[in-house]
Amino acid sequence: MKKIYLFFLILSSTLIAQNKVKVDLSNPSSTIYTHLYFLQPDSYEPVKAAQTIYGVEGEKAEEIAIKLKQILDGKGLKVDFTKVPKDKMHSDTSNFKKKYQYVLFPYQMPQIYVEKIGDNWYYSSETIGQVNAIYNSIYPWYTNKLQQIIPDIGHYSILNIELWQYLGLLTLLTLSVLVFYILRKVVFYILRKIQFLIIKKSNERINITLKKLARPIVLLLLIQFIKWQLPSLLLPLNLNTFLFLSFNIMATVFWIYVFLKLVKVIMGIYEDFVESTHSKLDDQLVPILDNFLVGLVIFFGFLKVLTLFGIEPVTVIAGASIGGIAVALASQDTVKNLIGTIMIFVDKPFHIGDWIEAGIVAGTVETVGFRSTTVRAADTSVYQIPNSTLSEMVVNNKGLRAFRRYTTNLGLRYDTPPELIDAFVKGVRKIVELHPDTRDDAFNVEFAGFGDSSLLILLNVYFVELDWNKEQASKHSLHIAVLKLAAELGVDFAFPSTTVMIEQFPEKKGLPMDYNIEENRIKNIIDSINKKK
């Protein structure tokens, strides 16, 4: 009894093994698996594979099924069945016209997809109608003729690769090296022409950058050429998948390199431009903009590399967006400072080297960074002001003044005769007019009023030198000239004092001042100012 039971068990296992894979069109996964399985070398039954083709029968259906597999093999597109849906009612939410469909490779080959027709899934009519066009775009015209002229020895296989395929790879590599040295000079010549069309001039730094830029551009062209020729070698799917992934990664890296060099070229042109402007703030923008663009290129290049390893671009973008929001929330102050930096460079409330007053801080602007602005005070201490705060403050930019205004009061003694007051005012006016560092068309020197201890002479002038140190030197020379005039006229400056009038003792008198108000003497002193200048 046990032997009979064992016999039937072995017989049933054998029958199950023989019928393990059947034609199954019930869902997207089964249809695609049926198509590919029955076109494998050890299970080659194109008649069964052709049953996945709807509306076409016989040899025509077999030809379409075979070409579909060759298209996927030629592009190195390997189906990951763990991601293919097994739901017979699978719905594609991205397509509103055809609800029940599944695209095998939506980003690499969106033309090939299966759809639900009746109770089964088949390759779509649009896919079937485009098979020949897709096949001809992937395989060069000489692919079939090449197979006919290869001798039998060329089909000898080593590590699952035939000899003629090794020879083809070697020929393709040799041809690429030769073309590289030719195209490098051509591409560099074209880049130079484009450069002269844009800026009409050149320098050694830009030329070096263009030479470095020409190499990756040529390599990108060669990679595209190799990817175009690679399907004609009919390499195994696994090898094609590896080669295409490698070439795509190389192309992405080269594109990153190209954009980084383009950033250098653009920043070189921009740097030449800002050197011709008077604003030093533009010079400060060069390194900031350079770092920002470099970071942007590397970030998007990294996202592109992630998609090459099978991560959906939508997932990558969504992850980057969520990550960006998380980073923004975690570093609100940094984001605020970055926005403040942008506002400073857009509005340009000050330039590098300007003397500004912002709140309690007063000093010279030295640098404007991503996060903060450096201001050096008169005592050489350094203030770091966050750009978000600085962009919201009232900034008094004294560096933008056309002139430096200087106002003071000259206090004369109360017993100064009116004649000498008038002569002193006229003399100071002459000094201001003839002073090399003051405006002679805008100033005020007037007897302004009566102070607590002196007669007030208003001195309001404008210095043409904007530098703080030069302004102090100009004040020095102006003050010395005023003191000399006062000494020659015999005019004294008052000290803070209090005068007590004693009316009950008329014999007590104050010390009389000996003022010389001779008219000719005063006139000669005023006229001598012109001669001194």
TrEMBL record:
InterPro entries linked to this entry: LSM_dom_sf, MS_channel_C, MscS_beta-dom_sf, MscS_channel_2nd, MscS_channel_C_sf, MscS_channel_TM-2, YnaI-like
Give UniProt keywords alphabetically.
Answer: Cell membrane, Membrane, Signal, Transmembrane, Transmembrane helix
In which compartments does the protein localize?
Answer: Cell membrane
Q: Does the keyword Transmembrane helix apply?
A: yes
Can you give the residue ranges of the Mechanosensitive ion channel MscS domain? Answer: 333-396
Pfam name, any one: MS_channel_2nd
Give me the segments passing through the membrane. Answer: 163-183, 242-263, 284-303, 309-330
Per the UniProt entry, the signal peptide is 1-17
Which stretches make up the Mechanosensitive ion channel MscS C-terminal domain?
408-492
- Please provide one cellular component term from the Gene Ontology annotations of this protein: plasma membrane
Annotated membrane topology: Multi-pass membrane protein
GO function term, MF aspect, one:
mechanosensitive monoatomic ion channel activity
Indicate the family of this protein: Belongs to the MscS (TC 1.A.23) family.
The identity of this protein, by name, is: Mechanosensitive ion channel family protein
